[in-house]
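Researcher: Structure prediction, please.
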Amino acid sequence: MVVGETKVAVVIPSYKVKAHILSVIESIGPEVHTIYVVDDCCPEGSGAFVETHCTDRRVKVLRNPENQGVGGAVMTGYKAALVDEVDIIVKIDGDGQMDPALISSFISPILLGDADYTKGNRFYDLEQISAMPKMRLFGNAVLSFMTKFSSGYWDLFDPTNGYTAIHAEVVRHLPFSRISRRYFFETDMLFRLNTLRAVVVDIPMDAKYEDEVSNLKISNVIGEFLFKHLRNFGKRIFYNYYLRGMSLASIELPLALILLVAGGVFGISRWMQSTSLDVPTPAGTVMLSALPVIIGVQLLMAFVGHDIASTPKYAFHKARKKLRVKMVENEL
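Model: Predicted structure follows.
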């Protein structure tokens, strides 16, 4: 079936989810046109298992010759969906944590033209948060804060949530070869979407944990994630504030950093000198150190305010559609 004339597909990365995959497929409603099960070199042979035991004619099994992680599996599904001219692509996991009944909620903002990409948010309902393990709750809170800086989507939370939907027009413009393919995939996607100025919307969903075991250990990836967040933050600032255009914020940020560093270095050096000589620091010297720091903080907060206000608000796929229509009209 199609939603109106819109074809919706579901991509299910399949790696060690043999126990849940069939029930997940059975729960996917008739609003979905095609289901791509991506066997990411699964040691359980999930692709062959689905082909043998699943009778749903919507299912297509894709195989990666080597394990590429969740990002590689999703992009394999994205590429197949583009070939099949699908309009909206939903990604859910095969472990049963994500309720397929929510697919309509995820695709609705895209159908209405209010979003290019939707993602789940397990933190929306405060009553449901108690179901989440405390360590995972803390880890997601830290990662969410880091993601706000690196991606530029200040109004989003739960960045590692893998329940997503995306318009195919946006997928066509993604740099597949440069997107992280493993645990940083969902977070890196947000950075890439921001470079396209795509609109991203959170969709409330419940936290659900059964007998599955998460392979993501926050303690093992926090260093890698921090490095990649800093890298993406630098790229985003350069792309949005210097390469594509200039604004007052383009001046505020470097000036704030210069003043903070200068004031801090001057203040520390004078404090060390006063300590070594055992004499009090003059009030004027203290002010010469404090003033650039205070102004630097104010400029930095002004930049952050501008950055928050510049979150994308107009759907990328709508703009591209209007552009194509205009080009066709000009040719006629």
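Model: The first strand starts at residue 8 and ends at 14.
Researcher: Thanks, that helps.
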